[in-house]
Design brief:
Elements: E1 2-6, H1 14-27, E2 32-37, E3 47-49, H2 53-70, H3 94-98, E4 101-104, H4 114-123, E5 127-131, H5 169-183, E6 187-190, H6 193-201, E7 209-212, H7 227-234, E8 241-249, H8 257-270, E9 278-285, E10 298-302, H9 307-316, E11 319-322, H10 331-338, E12 343-346, H11 351-354, E13 361-364, H12 369-382, H13 385-399, H14 402-417
Parallel strand pairs: 1-2, 1-4, 2-3, 4-5, 5-6, 6-7, 8-9, 8-11, 9-10, 11-12, 12-13
Helix pairs in contact: 1-14, 7-9, 8-12, 10-13
């Protein structure tokens, strides 16, 4: 079986990381898998870049410009919206032609237009589409938060100026998506049970096949290690309990930095001695911008893309905190737990599927900084740290191993190949 995984980037972003790991898992389990990307960043021969990368840049900029116009030339929400109005036709590429299954992953920001997606479906090859966020089940947004419009018909979008109108951009894109999905059958795979549930609520996906398969992780690479040695490698203090926060861009409001700051500062106010005992490690872009907000020492690592340094960062810390306001099934929590690091996160999205409350981490009430702080304190000062570490590692090995995930996807591919993409 030959599978072509289509994703905008090879390495940047959670979907790219997950797609790479899936490709590796499939190749290790008898499937010939390749990735097709616009942004190729390594020499990996199983990853193929679109021809003429400059064209992709044009598609990206053209779509951003059109969205910018709809936003009345304001940058707010500029990268929270995708319309798939411009992209590349991949159906003539040799990698596409040789594939038995086309596996769409995160295909936004100028990779595929809705016209390109329709052409893939019209071509008749079996199509599997992994949901890394809500965009395939909504009109234009990646994160629904509390907006219920995708369950009926997107319009009057709160991301558009003035809350949009009855026939705004979201309405128009919804109609285009609806015409495509009404004619074709796709195997949709959500990375979390939560997102699978959201997909089933979407009016766009009525009658489509939706299942849940988590992202895989290489537990031989992400594994516990010597904390002291890891701290020496990362130039982190040896005499403090370290709290890790990690995100591609730590200032992204959806990652919940404000709640993290409030939780940590409230703990220090209640327990002043913690200022000499704890420290915060921040891994991600723009980390230096938030250092002075904390009452605890902050050790900023910036954006880290070396896989070995990422593992050593996890191994250096005592707890990982991800107070996101919206999440699917975060790779970072999975990575930390594989390294034996207990995690704290809000009760949102797929986070409660990863963290078993007070077994391998702590699930805090949504948007509750006090409970978030309580979870951090419980892990660092009250719970059995060794037991939490063992349970975290065991959860990942049992649920997210490469082999287990690959076998589930192979079943989905076989089912997809048994049916034509056109609905009967």
């Amino acid at each position: 079986m030959r599978v072509l995984i289509v994703n905008t980037s090879e390495k940047t972003g959670g979907a790219a990381v997950a797609s790479n790991r899936l490709m590796e898992a499939l190749n290790n389990n008898g499937v010939k898998a390749k990735m097709l990307v616009a942004d190729k960043q390594t020499e990996n021969i199983t990853v193929v870049q679109l021809p003429h990368p400059a064209f992709h840049r044009f598609h990206f900029l053209w779509e951003r410009w059109r969205i910018f116009c709809h936003l009345h030339f304001k940058r707010e929400h500029l990268f929270e919206i995708d319309t798939a109005c411009s992209g590349t036709d991949i159906t003539s590429l040799p990698e596409y032609k040789e594939a038995d299954v086309i596996h769409l992953s995160w295909v936004n920001q100028g990779l595929l237009s809705l016209r390109d997606i329709r052409k893939i479906l019209d071509d008749g090859k079996p199509v599997v589409w992994t949901l890394h966020d809500a965009w395939p089940v909504t009109a234009i947004c990646h994160v629904t938060l509390s907006c219920p419009r995708f369950t009926t018909h997107c319009q009057q979008c709160p991301l558009l100026p003035g809350g949009g109108s009855k026939r705004d951009l979201s309405y128009q894109v919804w109609e285009r998506k609806a015409r495509i999905l009404a004619k074709h059958s796709i195997k949709f795979v959500a990375c979390s049970k939560w997102l699978a549930g959201e997909a089933r609520r979407s009016r766009l996906l009525v009658g489509q096949d939706i299942t849940n398969i988590p992202n895989p992780i290489d537990t031989r690479f992400f594994q516990p290690g010597d904390q002291r040695q890891a701290r020496l490698q990362m130039n982190l203090p040896l005499d403090r309990k370290l709290i890790l926060f990690a995100s591609q861009r730590v200032t992204n409001r959806l990652k919940g930095m404000d709640y993290f700051v409030q939780a940590c500062n409230s703990l220090v106010a209640a327990h002043p001695e913690l200022k000499e005992q704890w420290g915060i490690v921040v891994m991600g872009g723009h980390a230096e911008e938030i250092e002075d907000q904390f009452r605890l020492p902050v050790y900023s690592l910036g954006y880290v893309n070396n896989p070995h340094a990422i593992v050593e960062t996890y191994q250096s810390c005592n707890v990982f905190v991800l107070p996101s306001l919206s999440e699917n099934l975060p790779n970072t929590i999975m990575e930390a737990m594989a390294c034996g690091i207990p995690c704290v996160g809000f009760k949102v999205g797929g986070i409660p599927e990863e963290i078993d409350h007070q077994v391998n981490g702590y699930v805090a009430d949504y948007k509750n900084a006090e409970d978030l702080g309580k979870g951090i304190h419980w892990i660092l000062e009250e719970a059995d740290g060794h037991a939490l570490s063992v349970a975290a590692r065991q959860k990942v090995v049992a649920s997210y191993s490469q082999h287990a995930v690959a076998m589930k996807y192979i079943d989905v591919y076989n089912e997809a190949m048994a049916f034509k993409t056109y609905k009967l």
